[in-house]
């Protein structure tokens, strides 16, 4: 306890870090206040309660509850993530985007500009479906045509404002603004979910002992998620000795840390965006939504939904790992700096060796990632409340764990840079691929 107080004092003494933390809290407060501002012309008491269940409940959790409240931030950052996924796929297939990606900072700025423009169109399209399916006619207190036009503009503006808040957190806060906004929306639903589950158990459905067992299981899953995020496979690298003047360079052994889950949370986000397509079709074509196959994708506990979800996660894990980790470039960089893997020839054999190890650790990593993703379905089968079950795995758990680890790592780097002790007594906090930078 004494060490914790000392660490908090050290954090407060660093003016730059203190300012960044306060800025982050201020921006998050603005976001949370905006999530309670209802669209003009809507009667909140008449809103549908169906948004608390199934796939809509998952969307509502990502938006921090603003989805079910018909808030001006109802769509959150999901349209931006969808646009980013589209651009990511275009960088693989379209030469123009491949060229932009190789142009450095200027190319990144152009890609970001295109992503924002695409976000506006995606948000406008989703706003139409949202107003049609979530906001009933008896909840609209003004002219319907005027309401639809104004609400579409407001929802689009709200999403762009949330994106701006995320960029401000990245620039003036503690970083990873989009990730932190998603995490705050998820955590905001935790107290209510825990309270509902506790009340349900105390009132006779299993008793307090069952709730304690569920809490212990949840802590175990969180620990497993931390291991999955931080797990690495170290490849030893030797550097040849060089004598420059009276100094010796190289001659030391270093390691290339290959993460078991190099793709981070992005495969789940990609797969989740694909799984939202059937519900989007149902918003525009109600008759098609009654189809038994499409209807199964609205139930996150169904076998069809979870099997498809798991397969997509495994495929996207390999795809995103192939995009983010380039063994050929790593081998060329090592060769250029006089480094080599013991027992492996420099150049192409080293690239093949790294690629082989990467494939071996990515496959079990993708399986474990898929298991964590579908864990909420098993929790609901065991009788856990659907709202509380979302925290037993899935995107919400991995995003929360990953963002917290990365934020702690950034705070620790500020402390170590100014010669303070880190957050941990032994070892160092390892981060992970942040959602914002990956997107």
Q: Would you identify the CATH architecture of the largest domain?
A: Orthogonal Bundle
Q: What is the helix tally?
A: 21
Strand content: 5-15%
Structural class: mainly alpha
CATH fold group of the largest domain: Preprotein translocase SecY subunit
Q: Averaged pLDDT, please?
A: 79
Strand order of the largest sheet: 4-1-5
Q: Give the distance, in angstroms, between the N- and C-terminal Cα atoms.
A: 38 Å
Largest sheet: 3 strands, antiparallel
- Rg for CA atoms: 24 Å
Number of strands: 5
The CATH homology group name of the largest domain: SecY subunit domain
Specify the overall morphology: globular
Under CATH at level 1, the class of the largest domain stands as Mainly Alpha
Helix percentage: 55-70%
Parts with pLDDT < 50 across at least 5 consecutive residues:
432-439
Work out the count of structural domains: 2
